[in-house]
TrEMBL record:
Enzyme Commission identifier(s): 3.4.22.-
Organism, as annotated: Thermohahella caldifontis
Main localization, broad class: membrane
The protein, known as: Exosortase
GO CC annotation terms, alphabetical: plasma membrane
Length: 457
C-alpha cells in the first residue's frame, strides 16, 4: 500500500487544484500556443477567449471555500482519463488532427485534478471548465448544424410574411430583387459560445441545484441562437422592403450584437425565476479546509504524466517536412502566352484568405486573340491551422459585394474541366464572362486561372 502523504492546512484542495491545472497547461503548452492566437481574431468565433480565461481564473478563486470543503482521495477513474488524454494528444499530434489534440489538451489538466483530488473536487470545476472550453477552437464542427438550423427557422418565419421568396439550400432568393446567402459566418456560432459563457456563469453564481443549472444553460443557449435567427430574419425583411438598398444588408455585425444584448437582458429576467431555488443544496461547506491526504501513487502518476507529455512533445513537435516544400515560381511562358514583368490590376480575382504564400502573374498572348489576357493566382497552404485552412467559408471565387452571379457553366477540356462564370458588376454595370481552371494538391492549392473573355452582354 502506498504511504499516504498528508497535506497541511497551508496546502488546501484549492491550491492543489491550481497547481495541477497549471501543470497540465505546461505539459500541453505547445497546443495552447496554437489556441491562443485564435482569441486575437476580433471577428472570429473565439474572440471571447481572453474573457473566458479571465472568468475561469476568477471562478477558481471564488470557489476556494467549496473546493477546500471537499474530501480528497485518489481516483482510478481520473487516472484512466489522464491516460486517455495523453493518448488523444499523441494521436492528434501524430496524425495532425488539431481538434483531437486540442480537446485532449483541454481535458488533461482537469483529469489530473480528478485523479489526484477525487471526483468531489473535480465536480466543482465542471462549469468553470465549461466556460474555458468555449474558447477551445473545436466548435467549428457545429457550424453546419447551426447554419442549417438558422435556414430552417428563418424559412419557417418567412412563411408568415407576404414576401415572395424561395429557399434553396442556404440561399434565400427574393424574387425580382436578389439572393441572400446564409453562410457559415451566419450560423450564430459566436452568439452561441458567448451565450454559453454567460449562462454557465449565471448558473455557477446564483443556482445550486444541477437540474436548475442545466435549465438555465439551456435557456441561455436558446436565447443566444434566437438572437441570430432574428438577425437574419430582420435583415431579409429589410432587404425586401428597401429593394436591397439598405446599408444594413452589408454591415450587420453591430446590429447582430445589439440584438444579442437585448436577448441577454430578457434572459437575465427569465433566469432570475430559477435563482436561489428552494430545493438547491450547497455543494460544499465553506470554511476552514480540512487536512487532505494524497497518496504517493497519485504523486507518482503526476510525475509520470509530466515525463510522458514532455517526451511526446519533444518527439512529435519536430518541424514538419511539409514546411520545407519547394514553392515553384510561375513560368515565364505558358503556351503562346508570355508573362509580363509586372502584375497588372486584374478586372476580377478570387477572394482567398489565410494562405501562406501567393504567386500571381499576368500573361499576354503572342498575337491577337479573342481570349485576351490571362491572370494566374497560385495560392499555397502549408501546415493548415484554424483560420488558415484551404477549404473555408471565407474563400470565394468572386466578391459578392462587387459582382453578381448571372450564370455558371462548365467547359470540358482534354486536361480537365474549365469553369465559366458570367458576372455582372455592381459598380459599373454590364456583364463580363470569365473562365477559370483550378487544381489542388496535398499541401498547396493553385486556383483560379481566369481568362477575360469578351462580354456576353
Amino acid at each position: 500500500m502506498a504511504t499516504p502523504i498528508r497535506i497541511t492546512q497551508q496546502w488546501p484542495a484549492s491550491i492543489w487544484a491550481g497547481i495541477l491545472i497549471l501543470a497540465g497547461w505546461l505539459f500541453t503548452l505547445p497546443t495552447w500556443m496554437e489556441v491562443v492566437p485564435q482569441w486575437t481574431i476580433m471577428d472570429g468565433a473565439y474572440s471571447h477567449g481572453f474573457l473566458a480565461f479571465g472568468v475561469f481564473i476568477w471562478l477558481l478563486h471564488h470557489l476556494r471555500p467549496e473546493l477546500d470543503g471537499q474530501p480528497v482521495q485518489f481516483s482510478w477513474i481520473g487516472a484512466v482519463w489522464v491516460l486517455l488524454s495523453l493518448a488523444g494528444i499523441l494521436l492528434g499530434t501524430s496524425l495532425l488532427i488539431e481538434a483531437v489534440e486540442q480537446l485532449a489538451a483541454f481535458v488533461l489538466p482537469f483529469a489530473l485534478v480528478w485523479m489526484v483530488l477525487g471526483w468531489p473536487v473535480a465536480q466543482r470545476l465542471i462549469l468553470p471548465a465549461g466556460i474555458l472550453f468555449t474558447a477551445v477552437p473545436v466548435w467549428d464542427v457545429t457550424s453546419y448544424a447551426l447554419q442549417s438550423l438558422t435556414v430552417a427557422v428563418d424559412h419557417f418565419l418567412l412563411g408568415f410574411s407576404d414576401i415572395d421568396f424561395e429557399v434553396n439550400d442556404i440561399f434565400v432568393t427574393l424574387k425580382g430583387l436578389g439572393t441572400f446567402e446564409i453562410a457559415t459566418g451566419c450560423s450564430g456560432l459566436r452568439y452561441f459560445l458567448v451565450g454559453l459563457v454567460v449562462a454557465q456563469l449565471n448558473a455557477i453564481l446564483y443556482v445550486r441545484s444541477w437540474p436548475r443549472r442545466l435549465s438555465i444553460i439551456g435557456i441561455g443557449i436558446l436565447f443566444s441562437l434566437a438572437a441570430n435567427w432574428l438577425r437574419v430574419y430582420i435583415i431579409i425583411l429589410v432587404g425586401y422592403y428597401s429593394k436591397m438598398e439598405s446599408g444594413l444588408i452589408r454591415d450587420h455585425e453591430a446590429f447582430g450584437w445589439v440584438l444579442f444584448a437585448v436577448m441577454l437582458v430578457i434572459f437575465y429576467f427569465v433566469s432570475r425565476r430559477l435563482e436561489d431555488a428552494p430545493d438547491g443544496q450547497p455543494q460544499g461547506t465553506p470554511g476552514t479546509a480540512a487536512p487532505a491526504v494524497v497518496s504517493g501513487t497519485a504523486l507518482a502518476c503526476v510525475v509520470l504524466a509530466g515525463i510522458v507529455s514532455l517526451g511526446l512533445y519533444a518527439d512529435q513537435r519536430q518541424p514538419s517536412s511539409v514546411t520545407d516544400a519547394q514553392i515553384a515560381p510561375l513560368p515565364e511562358r505558358m503556351g503562346h502566352y508570355s508573362r509580363l514583368p509586372i502584375m497588372l490590376d486584374p478586372p476580377w480575382k478570387p477572394i482567398w484568405k489565410g494562405y501562406d504564400r501567393l504567386n500571381a502573374g499576368a500573361y499576354i498572348p503572342a498575337e491577337q486573340t479573342p481570349l485576351g489576357s490571362v491572370y494566374v493566382f497560385d495560392y499555397w497552404y502549408i501546415n493548415q491551422k484554424p483560420g488558415r485552412e484551404m477549404i473555408q467559408d471565407a474563400n470565394r471565387f468572386y466578391d459578392s459585394y462587387r459582382w453578381k452571379l448571372i450564370h455558371q457553366d462548365q467547359i470540358t477540356q482534354p486536361d480537365g474541366n474549365l469553369g465559366v462564370l458570367v458576372l455582372e458588376s455592381l459598380r459599373e454595370g454590364g456583364a463580363s464572362e470569365f473562365s477559370m481552371g483550378s487544381r489542388s494538391e496535398i499541401v498547396t492549392t493553385q486556383t483560379a486561372l481566369p481568362q477575360n473573355l469578351p462580354s456576353s452582354g
